[in-house]
């Protein structure tokens, strides 16, 4: 139901796993809840929010009793979602946090530029600029062989789960509850509003909705099977569209059978907590990432845990962005605590992605950046004449840039531009990337995302809230987006 591929995060709800950065259409949530009475994810958030509000009230009260010189904070409960919550004490600036932190951005200089960085005592790493759009670097030998081994072993010990589940039936009921007319759906899909549905408009939609990756040939096969395209011009008119049920494509696919290789991603993953008490290697990696990115340590500490991903032979991840676009209504998953809980849009706000290769892949498995340093960017030309640049099973060779997975190498890039004032700006459209199909052997990678809210006030408020939690609480708090859907609590390895 979202109509543009970037709005479309296929998954993760997580987690994104992936990142899952994902913008959930508000209606999707609503209808899920109406249907079953309790929509599990919304229900989860309600419980979490209630729990946290409760904790904050208690803490605020303690604070008040402890420090009280009797003075009222004029800003209290300014953003209490439903009243009643005493806000935590604020700095005297009237509730607005002054911008006293700015985010360093590593300077790329030019493609091919090599700079020396000091990340571990007694060793100098070389960091090479791979592209400026997105701002992307490669650091060979970032992890030692031993560190790679430990991370893979910890992940196996913890257990990995499917990164994307097969889609089940049930969308039909959802569509019924929404009660959208064929015209309404047609208009949602018709991105360029020309009154016809081009192949790419349908493809984009299906990936977003079902997590099934259709190729243009698949779609033609479906058209033929359903006799959908009566005049055979490769386009669906409203008249043709009206004759299809809203779930016709999915039914067709499920009947024919969907293979793992036809999903948006075909991998397994897990999350490793990196805070106090975690394995020393995991803590070391976090500190090294802090030094590499030159960001405030708190930001890195409060980011998602380390994600470890395993691709078997044949595994892939089609091109996507790790983070969502910035709309005024968008709330970041990691700062949800400090946001209006009523906001309908939620996305992962991952300022930086650090990707580590834990093994050297025998064949394939490159990380492709289809539009890196392209002169211009045009959403519509990503899928053209049957060439889908986002398809990493077929078209990695047409990507502008590919990084070969080499054990111990890290690459990192910025998913957002700068706002010019030292904070996060717009999403960087060029940050599109994917994992090419592994043709020989297997592939192990880890992702460290650094979460920053483009809304400075919300990030500051969130950090203030977390800093007031008791220690063990604050270690848990930062990870609300680690697979809440699948396993809400990550063990501390
Ligand atoms: C759906 O909408 C149509 C027309 O807008 C209406 O006639 C119908 O009763 C609605 N169905 C449900 C289940 O709400
Ligand atoms: C919450 O939403 C209200 C109304 O849209 C707005 O005035 C307020 O500033 C928001 N609060 C936060 C914390 O975003
Ligand atoms: C890449 O740049 C070329 C030249 O400006 C342009 O024609 C093409 O559409 C761009 N590709 C994408 C996907 O935007």
UniProtKB/TrEMBL annotation:
Its main location: endoplasmic reticulum. This is Transmembrane prolyl 4-hydroxylase. It comes from the Eukaryota. Its EC number is 1.14.11.29. Its cofactor is L-ascorbate. It is a single-pass type II membrane protein. It holds the Pfam family 2OG-FeII_Oxy_3. GO terms for cellular component: endoplasmic reticulum; endoplasmic reticulum membrane. Keywords: Calcium, Dioxygenase, Endoplasmic reticulum, Glycoprotein, Iron, Membrane, Metal-binding, Oxidoreductase, Repeat, Signal-anchor, Transmembrane, Transmembrane helix, Vitamin C. GO terms for biological process: glomerular basement membrane development; pronephric glomerulus development; regulation of erythrocyte differentiation. GO terms for molecular function: calcium ion binding; hypoxia-inducible factor-proline dioxygenase activity; iron ion binding; L-ascorbic acid binding; procollagen-proline 4-dioxygenase activity. It is found in: Endoplasmic reticulum membrane. InterPro entries: EF-hand-dom_pair, EF_Hand_1_Ca_BS, EF_hand_dom, Oxoglu/Fe-dep_dioxygenase_dom, P4HA-like, Pro_4_hyd_alph, Pro_4_hyd_alph_FE2OG_OXY. It catalyses: L-prolyl-[hypoxia-inducible factor alpha subunit] + 2-oxoglutarate + O2 = trans-4-hydroxy-L-prolyl-[hypoxia-inducible factor alpha subunit] + succinate + CO2. Gene3D superfamilies: EF-hand, q2cbj1_9rhob like domain. Homodimer. Catalyzes the post-translational formation of 4-hydroxyproline in hypoxia-inducible factor (HIF) alpha proteins. Hydroxylates HIF1A at 'Pro-402' and 'Pro-564'. May function as a cellular oxygen sensor and, under normoxic conditions, may target HIF through the hydroxylation for proteasomal degradation via the von Hippel-Lindau ubiquitination complex. It comes from Oryzias latipes (Japanese rice fish).
């Amino acid at each position: 139901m979202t109509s543009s591929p970037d709005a479309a995060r296929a998954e993760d709800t997580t987690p994104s796993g992936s990142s899952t950065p994902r913008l959930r259409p508000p209606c999707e949530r609503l209808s899920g809840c109406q249907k079953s009475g309790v929509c599990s994810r919304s229900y989860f958030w309600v419980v979490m929010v209630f729990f946290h509000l409760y904790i904050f009230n208690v803490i605020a009260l303690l604070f008040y009793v402890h420090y009280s010189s009797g003075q009222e904070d004029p800003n209290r409960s300014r953003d209490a979602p439903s009243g009643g919550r005493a806000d935590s004490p604020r700095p005297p600036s009237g509730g607005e946090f002054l911008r006293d932190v700015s985010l360093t951005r590593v300077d790329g200089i030019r493609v091919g530029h090599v700079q020396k960085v000091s990340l571990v005592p007694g060793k100098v790493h070389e960091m090479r600029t791979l592209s400026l759009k997105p701002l992307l670097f490669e650091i060979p030998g970032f992890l030692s062989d031993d560190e790679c081994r430990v991370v893979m072993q910890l992940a196996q010990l913890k257990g990995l789960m499917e990164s994307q589940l097969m889609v089940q039936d049930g969308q039909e009921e959802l569509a019924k509850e929404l009660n959208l007319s064929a015209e309404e759906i047609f208009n949602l899909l018709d991105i360029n509003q020309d009154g016809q549905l081009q192949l790419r408009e349908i493809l984009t939609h299906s990936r977003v909705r079902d997590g099934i990756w259709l190729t243009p040939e698949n779609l033609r096969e479906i058209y033929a099977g359903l006799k959908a395209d009566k005049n055979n011009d490769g386009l669906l008119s409203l008249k043709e569209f009206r004759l299809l049920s809203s779930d016709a494509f999915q039914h067709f696919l499920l009947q024919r059978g969907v293979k793992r290789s036809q999903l948006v991603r075909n991998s397994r993953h897990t999350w490793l907590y990196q805070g106090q008490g975690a394995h020393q290697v995991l803590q070391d990696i976090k500190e090294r990432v802090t030094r590499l990115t030159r960001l405030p340590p708190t930001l890195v500490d409060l980011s998602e845990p380390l994600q470890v991903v395993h691709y078997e032979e044949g595994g892939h991840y089609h091109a996507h962005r790790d983070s969502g676009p910035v709309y005024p209504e968008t709330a970041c998953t990691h700062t949800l605590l400090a946001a209006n809980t009523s906001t309908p849009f939620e996305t992962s706000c991952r300022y930086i992605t650090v990707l580590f290769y834990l093994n050297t892949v025998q064949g394939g498995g490159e990380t492709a950046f289809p539009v890196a340093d392209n002169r211009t960017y045009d959403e519509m030309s990503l899928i053209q004449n049957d060439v889908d640049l986002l398809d990493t099973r077929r078209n990695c060779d047409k990507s502008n840039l590919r990084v070969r997975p080499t054990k111990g190498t890290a690459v990192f890039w910025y998913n957002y531009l700068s706002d010019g004032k030292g904070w996060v700006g717009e999403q960087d459209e060029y940050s599109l990337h994917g994992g090419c199909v592994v043709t020989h052997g297997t592939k192990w990678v880890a992702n460290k995302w650094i979460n920053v809210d483009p809304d400075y006030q919300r990030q500051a408020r969130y950090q203030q809230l977390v800093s007031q939690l008791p220690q063990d609480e604050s270690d848990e708090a930062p990870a609300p987006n680690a697979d809440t859907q699948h396993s809400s609590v990550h063990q501390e390895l």
